[in-house]
């Protein structure tokens, strides 16, 4: 039986004509409509032409309309969660409100995850749990921002906490607009309230000059003209079209469930099934590539997402970017994958969890990440296994890589090998993420003898005994790295730290 969908079915004929489920058709159509309204929001409704109240109201009305079209009466869950959390923000002292809001918001989300897992019809559909995951990030980050801005000592805040600190609880209109704004309601990504408020009011045009000799060691504000987003929007739309075509015409021929199908397993060799695993898991990423890139384009079309200029004077449109596809597909390590996948969620995890938990930071952060995603067994299996392979990959890089740096040819061989193994591992753990339930998960991994689990465990066991080879960089390489680090530190990106939480953890615990 197909999963129940509460959104509009007015586009059902189009759904049947193109062969896509009605939930996906509604999503794509509404995002295209949002692109048009994004242009309107940037031009005739720009911050220099209308008041911030008008922009808040228009964004709210459009967001609610889009939400009702795609989710119907289930939109009430976002209203209920937001109403409860906003009441706490208004009534409770800033010293405790962040804890209360976090528990309430996460508790509500977990209840919805339980309902989806155990009481809803089986099958994948775009349901309200997705937007609710985004609003959970919004209300919790706002609550922690208010705690930082109104209660904590500013001298003890991290750079990220200083940037996202909120001095006053937003008005009801500001809060509602922040939760329901039309560019990000359906797919996100979640943004910090300080960034959203700056976009609505037009104050995102004020940037800080990094401290230099010319500014006597102090940052100075300056104003810039926000460029047209036409170029980044068109590039992202082109990417979306490519992946939609892959999703429609290629993905149906390689369904993920065949990885655990007994008949498929019995009739195909081990090596063929590994190839199928890699191909099917790569294709499964298409829906994330489409959704997140299209959401990014909608934000940019409305003028949201501009992050200043880099050291070369090039305009950056990655303030709300959630994924960097090229970096993922060409990555040479699992770290490269985690650095560029669901980037805003990684920033949220770092902001409200990793930077604040005094003990067991890694365990707490990964536990929160798993709970936020849902309660399907496949999610937890994926996160636990990812921890094993992250550790194994780090050990290989530390102990083995230096032996391949003596020549360009050897390094190329190492890079090709690590690219292959990285994408094999990502596909391997991705099977559990897509199969979701224990029975098919165990069938698949049993059919391949848990071979990468065994290999990862063996690597962790033997790496401590592998002698470490010292590698000395040439003067030119040292100068190049120093220049790169300096440029990364000085890039003007509105104070945003986009480092992935997993990379942050690895650096701290390396």
Automatic annotation (TrEMBL):
GO terms for molecular function: acyltransferase activity. Its main location: membrane. GO terms for cellular component: membrane. It comes from Potamilus streckersoni. This is Uncharacterized protein. The lineage of its organism: Eukaryota, Metazoa, Spiralia, Lophotrochozoa, Mollusca. The keyword Transmembrane helix applies. The chain crosses the membrane at residues 25-45, 57-79, 91-111, 172-193, 237-258, 270-290, 370-392, 413-437, 443-466. It is a multi-pass membrane protein. It comes from the Eukaryota. Keywords: Acyltransferase, Membrane, Transferase, Transmembrane, Transmembrane helix. GO terms for biological process: lipid modification. It is found in: Membrane. InterPro entries: LPLAT_7/PORCN-like, MBOAT_fam. Pfam families: MBOAT.
């Amino acid at each position: 039986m197909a999963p129940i969908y509460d959104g509009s079915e007015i586009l059902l004929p189009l759904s049947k004509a193109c062969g896509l489920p009605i939930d996906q058709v509604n999503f794509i159509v509404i995002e295209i409509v949002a692109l048009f309204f994004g242009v309107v929001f940037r031009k005739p409704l720009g911050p220099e032409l209308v008041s911030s109240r008008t922009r808040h109201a228009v964004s709210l009305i459009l967001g609610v309309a889009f939400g009702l079209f795609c989710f119907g009466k289930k939109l009430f869950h976002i209203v209920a969660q937001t109403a409860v959390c906003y009441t706490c923000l208004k009534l409770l002292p800033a010293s405790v409100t962040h804890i209360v809001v976090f528990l309430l918001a996460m508790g509500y989300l977990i209840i919805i995850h339980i309902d989806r897992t155990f009481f809803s019809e089986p099958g994948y559909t775009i349901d309200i749990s997705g937007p609710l995951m985004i609003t959970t990030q919004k209300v919790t980050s706002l609550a922690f921002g208010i705690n930082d801005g109104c209660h904590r000592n500013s001298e003890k805040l991290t750079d990220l906490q200083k940037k996202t600190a909120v001095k006053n609880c937003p008005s009801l209109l500001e809060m509602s607009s922040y939760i329901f704004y039309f560019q990000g309601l359906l797919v996100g990504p979640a943004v910090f309230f300080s960034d959203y408020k700056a976009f609505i009011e037009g104050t995102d045009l004020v940037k800080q000059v990094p401290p230099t000799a010319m500014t006597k060691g102090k940052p100075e504000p300056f104003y810039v003209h926000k460029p047209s987003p036409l170029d980044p929007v068109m590039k992202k739309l082109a990417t979306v079209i490519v992946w939609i075509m892959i999703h429609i015409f290629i993905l149906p021929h390689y369904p993920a469930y065949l990885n655990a199908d007994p008949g498929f397993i019995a009739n195909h060799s081990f090596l063929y099934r590994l190839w199928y695993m890699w191909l099917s898991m790569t294709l499964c990423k298409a829906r994330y590539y489409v959704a997140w890139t299209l959401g990014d384009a909608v934000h940019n079309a409305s003028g949201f997402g501009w992050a200043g200029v880099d050291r070369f004077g090039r305009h950056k449109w990655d303030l709300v970017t959630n994924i960097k596809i090229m970096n993922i597909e060409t990555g040479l390590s699992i770290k490269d994958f985690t650095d560029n996948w669901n980037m805003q969620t990684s920033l949220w995890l770092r902001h409200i969890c990793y930077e604040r938990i005094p003990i067991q930071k890694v365990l707490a952060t990964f536990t929160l990440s798993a709970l936020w995603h849902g309660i399907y067994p496949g999610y937890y299996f994926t996160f636990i296994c990812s921890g094993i392979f992250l550790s194994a990959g780090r050990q290989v890089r530390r102990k083995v890589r230096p032996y391949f740096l003596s020549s360009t040819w050897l390094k190329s061989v190492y890079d090709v090998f690590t690219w292959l193994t990285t994408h094999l591992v990502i596909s391997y753990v991705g099977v559990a993420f897509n199969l979701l339930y224990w029975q098919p998960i165990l069938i698949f991994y049993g059919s391949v003898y848990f071979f990468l689990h065994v290999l990862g465990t063996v690597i962790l066991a033997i790496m401590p005994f592998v002698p470490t080879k010292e590698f000395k960089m040439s003067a030119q390489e040292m100068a190049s790295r120093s220049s790169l680090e300096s440029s990364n530190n000085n890039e003007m990106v509105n104070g945003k730290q986009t480092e992935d939480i997993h990379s942050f953890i690895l650096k701290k615990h390396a």
